[in-house]
Amino acid sequence: MKTIKMYHSGILFFFGSVLIISMLFSGCGDDDDAGDQQSLYQKLGERAGIESAVEKSILAIASDPDLTPFFAVLLQDENGEGPGLEALKDNIADFIDEASGGNATYSGLSMQAAHAATNPRMANTENITNATYDSFLDAMISGAKQAGISNESILSEYRNLLEQSRSSIVP
Ligand code: HEM
C-alpha cells in the first residue's frame, strides 16, 4: 500500500514539474512578440523599400535650405561627369541595408571620413552641427514616410538606427 502511495506521489510530482516548466517556457514565447522577430531590414520592405525611402529622402534633403549647402558639389557632379547623387543613394542604401540586418556590405568611406569638413565633396568648410544632423534625420524620416512606411514604431526604430551615427558625424 505504502509503495503504491509513493508511486502515485512520484507520478504527481513528475507531471506537476512538467506543467510548471511548460508554463514558465510558454510565458517567454508570447504571440505578441511575433512582430519583433522581423529584422528592421524586413520591416522597411527589404532592399526595394530602403532604396525607395533613400530616393525620397534625397529629394527631401535637396529641398531643405539647411542641408543643400552640404550637397552643392554632388548636385553639380550629377550634371557633370562624376557619379554624384546616384552613387550617394546606392552607398546610403548599402549602409542602411547592412545596419538594419540585410545582406549588403557597405564599402564606402567611414562615417567620420565622409562627413569631415575637409572632404572636398562635402562642399562646405563648416562641420555638421547637431541641428544640421536633426534636419537630416527629419529628411530621412520624411522620405521613408513618402515611400509608404507609415507604422510609427518602425519609423522610430529607423530613426534610432540613424541616430547611432551622430557621434561619428557631428564632431
Ligand atoms: C544618419 C546620418 C547619416 C548617414 C547614415 C549618412 C550616410 C552617408 C553615406 C553612407 C555616405 C557615402 C560615403 C561614401 O560615398 O563613401 C554619405 C556621404 C555624404 N553625406 Fe552623409 N550621412 C548622414 C548624415 C549626413 C549629414 C547630416 C550630412 C550633411 C548635412 C551629410 C552629408 C553628406 C555628403 C555631402 C556626402 C558626400 C560625401 C562624398 O561623396 O564624399 N550626411 N553619407
CATH superfamily (homologous) name: Globins
Main sheet properties: none
Mean pLDDT score, rounded?
Answer: 82
State the share of residues found in helices, binned by percent: 55-70%
CATH architecture descriptor text? Orthogonal Bundle
Categorize the overall geometry.
globular
Under CATH, the topology can be stated as Globin-like
**Number of domain units:** 1
Query: Helical stretch count?
Result: 9
What binds here, in terms of ligands, is: protoporphyrin IX containing FE
CATH class group: Mainly Alpha
Task: Tally the beta strands.
Answer: 0
Please mark out the parts with pLDDT under 50 across 5 or more consecutive residues, or reply none: 11-16, 18-33
Series of H and E elements: HHHHHHHHH
Helix-strand makeup class: mainly alpha
Roughly how many Å apart are the termini?
Answer: 82 Å
Rg computed from alpha carbons, rounded to a whole number of angstroms: 26 Å
As a percent range, the share of strand residues is under 5%
Describe the structure.
With 171 residues, this protein is mostly helical. The chain has one domain (40-169): Globin-like (Orthogonal Bundle), CATH 1.10.490. Helices cover 64% and strands 0% of the residues. The chain contains nine helices and no strands. The chain has helices at residues 2-28, 40-43, 46-62, 72-79, 84-99, 111-114, 130-146, 152-163, 166-169. Helix 3 packs across helix 5 (84-99) and helix 3 crosses helix 7. The radius of gyration is 26 Å and the shape is globular. The termini are far apart. 18% of the residues are buried. It binds protoporphyrin IX containing FE. Protoporphyrin IX containing FE (HEM) binds at residues 67, 70-71, 74, 88, 91-92, 95, 108-109, 114-115, 119, 121-122, 128, 132-133, 136, 162, 165, 169.
